[in-house]
Design a protein that fits this description.
Layout (H helix, E strand, L loop, with lengths): L4 H13 L2 H8 L3 H15 L4 E4 L2 E4 L1 H24 L7 E7 L3 H4 L1 H11 L3 E7 L2 H10 L4 E6 L14 E15 L9 E3 L7 E4 L20 E5 L3 H9 L5 E4 L10 E7 L5 E8 L6 H12 L2
Parallel strand pairs: 3-4, 3-5, 7-11, 8-9
Antiparallel strand pairs: 1-2, 5-12, 6-10, 6-11, 6-12
Helix pairs in contact: 1-2, 1-3, 1-4, 1-7, 2-3, 6-9
Length: 297
């Protein structure tokens, strides 16, 4: 096969982003350039590598096989580039992905503990939704991912072999409300009281439900503000502009003016925090970072 490193990078980015358009945006290419690279890869491989679906693009079994080799080849090229320009790192790098609220609740303490136990390890981080981080993990763009799941905690994706997943903790979903006003001084709220509440939510996508509204809320929620950033959402709550759902583990980092209420009259909503990596024997650096994350929760 005659396959270029550019083609392999395009393959990896399509696998991570789930579409030709998103891959083109992230790589700084036109969509037609990505399509040409994809077609060239398939001609060289002599088989279909991409499955075009209504909800995006997935790799075929042959595409996944090539992706596994692409990760190794691209990592070797990166190492060769460092050697040639004389910038061999004296530290060991781990690329960590986290779901959106994990940065505030888990990351700082994990990095503090890692710095004390394994100062030679450098961690870089990126945020994303659980589906996007799973794709990044499969594509080799990150080495380790902190993810979340809800009951019944099905496998994170349908690819084979399965990712290696370790449970870190279970946490309860609660409602963040202003400390003054309607819910002042309370520790719980009935779900029926939330039907007409003004909600602050993150935009929905095909892969993720609407984040910030109580799951199963009767009726259509009144969404007054949309924001992905947790600081923005919580500051809006503190200002009395609405309510939002948060995992209870965020309680140590709440801004002044925000209280957390348990929801009564509805089944408890439990979210599981997971650490995932590709299958196989982990490197010592991956093991050390995983240990720091688990010990910080």
């Amino acid at each position: 096969m005659d396959i270029s490193s550019t083609g392999l990078r395009v393959l990896r980015q399509i696998a991570e982003s789930g579409s030709f358009t998103a891959a083109a945006t992230r790589l700084g290419y036109t969509q037609s350039a990505v399509s040409r690279q994809a077609a060239a890869l398939e001609r060289s491989a002599g088989t279909a590598l991409f499955e075009r679906r209504p909800d995006g693009v997935r790799l075929t079994p042959a595409g996944l096989t090539l992706l596994r080799h692409a990760r190794t080849i691209l990592d070797c090229l990166t190492a060769a580039e460092r050697d040639l320009i004389g910038t061999v790192s004296r530290t060991e790098l781990v690329r960590l992905g986290l779901f959106l609220s994990a940065g505030a609740a888990i990351l700082p303490l994990s990095l503090t503990r890692l710095a004390a136990t394994d100062p030679q390890i450098t961690v870089t981080t990126t945020e994303g939704t659980t589906p996007s981080l799973v794709r990044a993990l499969r594509a080799g763009s990150i080495d380790l991912a902190v993810l979340t799941s809800r009951p019944p905690h099905r496998p994170l994706d349908g690819e084979s072999p399965r990712l290696h997943v370790e449970t870190v903790m279970d946490t309860e979903l609660v409602v963040a409300v202003p400390s003054t006003g309607q819910f002042a001084g309370r520790t719980a709220v009935h779900v029926d009281e939330l039907i007409d509440a003004p909600w602050i939510a993150a935009p929905a996508s095909n892969a993720e439900p609407l984040l910030g509204v109580w799951p199963g809320l009767p009726g259509r929620p009144d969404i007054v503000h949309c924001a992905r950033d947790w600081l923005t959402k919580l500051q809006l709550v503190a200002g009395g502009f609405g309510v939002t759902t948060v995992p209870s583990r965020l309680s140590p980092v709440l801004p002044p003016g925000v209280s957390l209420l348990h929801v009564e009259g509805a089944p408890p909503e439990i979210r599981r925090v997971l650490v995932a990596r590709l299958p196989g024997r982990p490197t010592p650096t991956i093991t050390a970072v995983t240990r720091a994350i688990v010990s910080a929760t």
